[in-house]
Amino acid sequence: MALPSSLNRYLLLMAQEHLEFRLPEIKSLLSLFGGQFTSSQETYGKSPFWILSIPSEDIARNLMKRTVCAKSVFELWGHGKSPEELYSSLKNYPVEKMVPFLHSDSTYKIKILTFNKTLTQEEKVKRIDALEFLPFEGKVNLKKPQHIFSILEDYGLDPNCIPENPHNIYFGRWIADGQRELIQSYSVKKRHFIGNTSMDAGLSFIMANHGKVKENDIVFDPFVGTGGLLIASAHFGAYVCGTDIDYNTIHGLGKASRKNQKWRGPDENIRANLRQYGLEKYYLDVLVSDASKPSWRKGAYFDAIITDPPYGIRESTRRTGSQKEIPKSIEKCPESHVPVSLSYHLSDMFFDLLNFAAETLILGGRLVYWLPVYTPEYTEEMVPWHPCLKLISNCEQKLSSHTSRRLITMEKVKEFENRDQYSHLLSDHFLPYQGHNSFREKYFSGVTKRIAKEEKSSQE
Q: What is residue 203's predicted lDDT score, i.e. its pLDDT?
C-alpha cells in the first residue's frame, strides 16, 4: 500500500512488552488527535520499529504525550537495508525539509540506537562520520542540542542469533519521547491504597488510551475496587466516578492487602489515591452499588466506561438479591433490609455490563473491559455482542498455560432502544460464552492444568 504523499513519514520506536496492545493503542490515539492510521507495513508483529504516516508533527507530539507503548518518535529522513541504501535514501530526501534543522545558527548531536546488539564507541563514531555528506552547518552540542538526530539499527529479535549486519537501518530527527515513566511514577508498589486486584499502572494507562479518554470527559468504572483505573483516566484530565458492591473496599475498611500491615489506615481510600498524584479535583464520587442493578436514571452520561470485572479468582463475583430470588425487576427490598450476596454468573455480568454501556455511553463513547477465558475452548465468537456496540479491538494477556484474559474495546455506534436490552439472547454469541461461567473452576483445576501441559508438549 503506497503512503499518501501529503503525509510525513515517522518512525515509532516501540516498547517490547504488551505486544498485542500496541497497535490498538496507537490507532486509538491517532484517531483521538485527528489522524488516521496509515502505514505501508502489512503487519507489525514483534518488531520495535514502525513506519507510520502522520498528518503533522503536532499530532505526532500529541501521540507521544499519551502513549505508554511507544518509547520515541522520529521524523524519518532515510531508511535502507544496508548503509548504501540508507545513504541513497537520505540523498533523495528533500533538502528544503532538512535545512530548518541544519543551518549555521543551530546546534545538534547524533545518537546511535541499536536493537539486539551493542556497538563499540569506535563503531558508533564510524557510522556518524559516514553521514558527512549531509548539509550540517551548525555546531555539535552533546549536552543541550537544539536538534537530536538518530541512526537506528535493527538486528532482529533473536538474542541467540545476532546477525553481523542489521536487517534495517533508519535515520531521523527525534521529535518526542512517550510516557513510559508513568509506569514507575504510578506504580502500585508506591500507591497509598491498594487491594488484591489493583490494576498494573501500565495496563491502566493502556486501557485509558484504548478508551480515548481526554480532558473533561466523564469516565465511569462499575467495578471500581481501589480506583486504579480512575487514576489513569484522571491523569489525562477526565472526571472520574465509580461503584462497587464491596462496602469495605469503597470505604477503605477491613484487612490490608500489603505485607506486614494488618488493617487499613483511616485515610486509605480512593480519594486519597487521587490526592497522592495531585488529581483530587477530578474525583466526582464512588458509591456502594450493585452492577447488576444500576441505580442510574436513563440517559447517556459517560464518555467512557473502563473496568476490570471480578473473575471469581482473587475477588468473588457477587450481586445482591434474596435467597428466594424473585425476578429482580419485581422484587424491591424495604429500606431496612440489607440484601444477601448471591453468585453472579460471568455471562450475566458481561451482558449486564454491555447493556449498561449501551444505555449510558454517549454516541462514540467507548467501553473497555477485561474478559477472562479458558484458552483451550476460546473462540472469537465467545466475545459478548450488543447491537449498539461495535468491537474495536481484542487483545490477549496470558494468565497461565490454560487461561488468559482479553482486553475488549467497544464503541457505541447506535442509540439504545428498549428492544436492544434482550437482543443478546438471540445472538449466537450468548451460548458460547455461557461455558465460561465455570471459569473459576477451570482456573483452579489441577486436572486441566495437566491436560493443557500434555497438549502443549505433544504439539512441540
A: 97
Q: How many CA atoms lie within 13 A of 404 on its CB side?
A: 15
Can you read off the three cell numbers belonging to residue 160?
541467540
User: In whole angstroms, what is the distance from residue 289 CA to residue 244 CA?
Assistant: 5
Q: Which residue do the cell numbers 534495517 mark?
A: 168
- Ordered by where they begin, the domains of the chain are 8-178 (3.30.2130.30), 182-321+339-424 (3.40.50.150)
Which H/E stretch holds residue 395?
strand 389-398
pLDDT for residue 265 is more than 60 = yes
Q: Average pLDDT, stretch 5-17? A: 85
Can you tell me whether residue 372 is helix, strand or coil? strand
Kindly give, in sequence order, each residue whose CB lies less than 8 Å from that of residue 157, ignoring residues fewer than 6 positions away.
46, 47, 116
Any residues with CB less than 8 A from the CB of 136 and at least 6 apart, and which?
102, 108
CA–CA gap between residue 108 and residue 143 (Å, rounded): 9
Cell of 389: 456496540
Which of 257, 352, 247 is CA-nearest to residue 296?
352
Amino acid, res. 248: N
| Among the ranges given (21-25, 98-102, 305-309, 448-452), the one the predictor scored with the smallest mean pLDDT | 448-452
Alpha-carbon distance of 153 to 170, in angstroms, equals 6
* This prediction's pTM: 0.87
Residues 6+ apart with CB under 8 A from 89: 77, 78, 79, 80
Rounded Cα distance between 303 and 288, Å, is 21
pLDDT (mean) for 339-346: 62
Cell of 332: 424491591
Angle between helices 201-210 and 19-32 (to 10 degrees): 40
Place of cell 483530587: 280
- Fill in the DSSP letter of residue 55: S
Of the chain, the percentage scoring pLDDT greater than 70 comes to 79
Q: Where are the alpha helices (DSSP H) in 312-424?
A: 346-360
